[in-house]
UniProtKB/TrEMBL annotation:
<protein>
    <submittedName>
        <fullName>DUF2642 domain-containing protein</fullName>
    </submittedName>
</protein>
<dbReference type="Pfam" id="PF10842">
    <property type="entry name" value="DUF2642"/>
</dbReference>
<dbReference type="InterPro" id="IPR020139">
    <property type="entry name" value="DUF2642"/>
</dbReference>
Amino acid sequence: MSGLPYTTTQTASNTPQMVTIVDPYVYQALQSVISREVVIQTVQGNIRGVVTNVLPDHVVLEAGNASFFIRIQQIVWIMPS
């Protein structure tokens, strides 16, 4: 395995398709804290803000006057404030 969060497969018509891995438990946990302040620890560090949107591959966090789009695959843990 290459360690990448996705794989490219070939279909019968030789059209590449991207397949991503969704973590349903993290996705569900993030949906439960929409509009709440949280701390999200990523592989790069942590960030505190309000969860404004959750999609299968990323979460949108408002911190100050900035929006952060964080890939769910980069999240280590989530702590509601």
